[in-house]
Amino acid sequence: MKHWVEAARLRTLPLSVSGIIVGSMFALAYPTTNILTPTEVFNWQLFGFSILTTLGLQVLSNFANDYGDGMKGTDNEDRIGPKRAIQSGVISPEAMKRAIIITSVLTFISALLLIYFAFGEAYIWYSVFFIVLGLLAIASAIRYTVGDTAYGYRGFGDFFVFVFFGLVSTLGVNFLYSKEVDYKLLLPAIAVGFLSVGVLNLNNMRDEASDRKAGKNTIVVKIGGAKAKIYHYFLIISAMVLVLIFAILKDFNFDQYIFLIAYFPLIKHLITVSKNTEPRALDPELKKLALSTFLLSVLLSLCMIFFFSDIIVNS
């Protein structure tokens, strides 16, 4: 059990639910015009299965990454960071393959229940769309490193992380509640996507030498470590700016800007990355950036709920 828990990489899980939290709390704080009250748009069944489905996708991605990199030999003695399950031999490739299949099935069942609770027997085309989206998400989680055409080995990992853990996670879950799209939510959705890509980019910066040797052509391998740092600055700073613009557009009160607290660890992280000269030393920053993203999503959500509370009090 210990080895399976390690293979699931628990430190990545808070990051994966960041978009779900923001999208869900946005639905509670800013109900759509065709819905009478916030409690009619938000419900705990949707929230619970959204979290469960996202966690399933993240664990699936981690299992598939362990399997794909392990079978390709990318996880070897040159790799920096904790040893993976297949690399160290504590889990066999056959067992990991079975785990990938089981996790895929369970995640898909969770996604189906989520879609049912969101749309019921109505909105049939919405249901079909989200079922297809769920299948694409499962396929993407697996194909990141598995197979001869794994997109993570061709530099497309950043794009898929941005789409699924940023846009789909935040905008998608909000649509399940509201059945509408509020384009202002696009700003925090992009921000969560950028920060999620930042974690991946940080991982790839750490592993640049071993990835280059193994033929894993990540964006960092393609552009080099120096430019990857500039790319990293762009991701983190843009995310902070976008969330700030969102707060301004949503007319946050002064006391709703407590989410700025999360900017301090993000700025500290940027300073650490700028001073770094040894990729190995970036490993602890992965957890810090993931937790900082989670903190930002929680604080921003609380700020939006404060807005909702103000409406209730004033009414």
Automatic annotation (TrEMBL):
Locations listed in the record: Cell membrane; Membrane
Name of the top EC class for this enzyme: transferase
Membrane protein topology class: Multi-pass membrane protein
EC number(s) on file: 2.5.1.74
Gene Ontology molecular function terms on file: 1,4-dihydroxy-2-naphthoate polyprenyltransferase activity
Keyword Transmembrane helix appears in the UniProt entry: yes
Pathway(s) the chain acts in: Quinol/quinone metabolism; menaquinone biosynthesis; menaquinol from 1,4-dihydroxy-2-naphthoate: step 1/2
UniProt keyword terms in alphabetical order: Cell membrane, Membrane, Menaquinone biosynthesis, Transferase, Transmembrane, Transmembrane helix
One Pfam match: UbiA
Keyword Chloroplast: no
Residues spanning the membrane: 12-30, 42-64, 99-117, 123-144, 156-177, 183-203, 230-248, 291-313
Functional note: Conversion of 1,4-dihydroxy-2-naphthoate (DHNA) to demethylmenaquinone (DMK).
Entry similarity comment: Belongs to the MenA family. Type 1 subfamily.
Protein name: 1,4-dihydroxy-2-naphthoate octaprenyltransferase
Organism, scientific name: Flavobacterium qiangtangense
Taxonomic placement: Bacteria, Pseudomonadati, Bacteroidota, Flavobacteriia, Flavobacteriales
